[in-house]
Write a structure and sequence with these properties.
50% of the residues lie in helices and 11% in strands. By secondary structure, it is an alpha/beta fold. It is elongated, with a radius of gyration of 28 Å.
């Protein structure tokens, strides 16, 4: 009696943050384990794996390097099943998810999750509605997380902690005591020059402060007088 041929499938993995990419991280391993366990239970053979590392779940699937290669393989070898760990590994943003599903459906491809859900099943209205609801809540969760992170950054700024942006010249030269000393003196001098005249209440302009710093030997990394923007940065608390 002939043995029934097992269904062939391709595994798709995606990790949003570069911080979760690497041999010491568990995101990729967790996704692989979940997909392989489902495939084994379902009698499916994984014949290929494609991985988009540090790719946002909002990015269109056809623009992702890993998924683009996956689609090219599907078109060439006839495999018509893709397995992902969960719906948000396929796409986190609802519109991206629905647009991606519409694309793979046109190719005759099924997208299954490791829990057994068929993301491409459009015959069951309840399943379609649930899929869309899950997409909405996944999108909501991501939006809430972004807001929480922004709030944390704002609190650090209020506390005077630098949380992002290009490092200051002092930070870039922290291992060079002489440069740090000269820059610290330049900042102190700039703040002193900016103080209001006790009699007239007037303050020196940023350009005049730059000129006086230059006269005292305080120049930027290119050996030129500091720009008004640089002086303004020096005067920050």
């Amino acid at each position: 009696m002939a043995t029934k041929k097992r269904t062939e499938a391709i595994a798709y993995l995606r990790t949003s943050s570069a911080a979760n990419v690497g041999a010491d991280k568990d995101s990729e391993r967790r996704q692989r384990d979940a997909i392989e366990a489902f495939a084994k239970r379902s009698g499916i053979e994984i014949v290929g794996t494609y991985y988009d590392a540090a790719v946002s779940g909002k990015d269109p699937i056809e623009g992702r390097p890993g998924f683009k290669a996956l689609l090219e393989r599907i078109v060439s070898n006839g495999v018509r099943t893709v397995i992902v760990e969960s719906a948000d590994r396929f796409a986190r943003h609802l519109l991206t998810q629905e647009a991606g599903i519409a694309l793979v459906v046109k190719l005759g491809v099924r997208v299954l999750t490791a829990s057994g859900d068929d993301l491409t099943d459009s015959d069951d209205e309840f399943r379609v509605a649930m899929r869309q609801m899950l997409g909405v809540f996944s999108q909501l969760e991501k939006t809430r997380l972004v807001k929480k992170l922004k709030a944390a950054r704002d609190r650090k700024r209020v506390a005077g902690t630098k949380v992002e942006g290009r490092k200051s010249r002092i930070e870039r030269n922290k291992d060079n005591p002489e440069v740090v000393k000269a820059l610290t003196e330049a900042v102190a001098m700039a703040k002193r020059l900016r103080r209001a005249n006790p009699k007239s209440g007037e303050r020196r302009s940023l350009r005049r402060i730059s000129a006086e710093l230059a006269a005292a030997g305080h120049l930027n990394e290119r050996g030129q007088p500091y720009s008004a923007k640089s002086i303004r940065a020096m005067l920050l608390p």
